[in-house]
Amino acid sequence: MEICFQISFVSLTIALALSSYRAFKGPRLPNRVLGLNLMSTVLASFAIVLACYHYQSLYIDLSVTVALIEFLATVAFARYIKYQGKEVSNVT
Q1: Number of domains within the chain
Q2: Could you tell me if 82 and 30 are in contact, meaning their C-beta atoms sit under 8 angstroms apart?
Q3: Is 69 inside a domain boundary?
């Protein structure tokens, strides 16, 4: 079981490194938003694996909170990208 946790931590660390590269070096704004979205998803996954490793349910609550905030931030960024450069008086 210890080896499974180590493999999970290493894979999530690699995924975090690759997504942070996309977030900081992305050629356009949508690529950067996608990188940030993936970073927060990987961090939420990291918290779940950590909860299983330490037998603490508090980390699962943290993961759900991060996932909800990440979803709302991604929707906000998508709306910003959609209406970027357009003058919109009533956005619904």
Answers
A1: 1
A2: no
A3: yes
Predicted local distance difference test score (pLDDT) of residue 92: 56
Location of structure tokens 């210890």 = 2
29, 81 contact by CB (below 8 A) = yes
**pLDDT at residue 12, rounded to an integer:** 95
Q: What is the pLDDT of residues 40-73, one digit of tens each?
A: 999 999 999 999 999 988 889 889 998 999 999 9
Q: Is residue 36 part of a domain?
A: yes
The two tokens of residue 31 are 């690529």
pLDDT at position 85 over 70? no
Are 75 and 35 in contact by the 8 Å Cβ rule? The answer is: no
The CATH number linked to 63 is 1.10.287
Q: What is the pLDDT of residue 91?
A: 56
- For 11, the token pair is 């894979």
* Token pair of 73 as six digits: 């931030």
- List the structure tokens of 25: 């070096």
